């Protein structure tokens, strides 16, 4: 909560090494419900830190940060997906972030594959008689992935 309201708190946390600690924590969580709550709060905290341009650069420079966040985007389908999506959009809003994502062709390929998979899913769900909530969620996930992919590829 403190990172949501205070730049000073964010700066103190970053100075204390919070970004690398949070990334390590994110990589170590399991699929259990309590661990998913920890993951959600860890990503939200990184998102709060990334609101400040100078701290966003520290996040981008942290080894493995982009890969870790993208992995959570690929691996989650619900709330955590959208938290990771917002964080990747913040990263992709800076030139340094775009360059960091572009340095890894594997990450770009995975992001592109995600967009293709969600496009296929959205198309199939429109043909099938599934619940509108499922269709709406897939469409929303697709829109987020397309925005990120465009931000990264078009700069």
UniProtKB/TrEMBL annotation:
<dbReference type="InterPro" id="IPR016024">
    <property type="entry name" value="ARM-type_fold"/>
</dbReference>
<dbReference type="GO" id="GO:0005516">
    <property type="term" value="F:calmodulin binding"/>
</dbReference>
<dbReference type="InterPro" id="IPR011989">
    <property type="entry name" value="ARM-like"/>
</dbReference>
<feature type="repeat" description="ARM">
    <location>
        <begin position="17"/>
        <end position="50"/>
    </location>
</feature>
<keyword id="KW-0963">Cytoplasm</keyword>
<dbReference type="InterPro" id="IPR000225">
    <property type="entry name" value="Armadillo"/>
</dbReference>
<dbReference type="GO" id="GO:0000278">
    <property type="term" value="P:mitotic cell cycle"/>
</dbReference>
<dbReference type="Pfam" id="PF00514">
    <property type="entry name" value="Arm"/>
</dbReference>
<dbReference type="GO" id="GO:0007051">
    <property type="term" value="P:spindle organization"/>
</dbReference>
<dbReference type="InterPro" id="IPR051185">
    <property type="entry name" value="ASPM"/>
</dbReference>
<dbReference type="GO" id="GO:0000922">
    <property type="term" value="C:spindle pole"/>
</dbReference>
<dbReference type="GO" id="GO:0051295">
    <property type="term" value="P:establishment of meiotic spindle localization"/>
</dbReference>
<keyword id="KW-0112">Calmodulin-binding</keyword>
<dbReference type="GO" id="GO:0005737">
    <property type="term" value="C:cytoplasm"/>
</dbReference>
<protein>
    <submittedName>
        <fullName>Uncharacterized protein</fullName>
    </submittedName>
</protein>
<keyword id="KW-0677">Repeat</keyword>
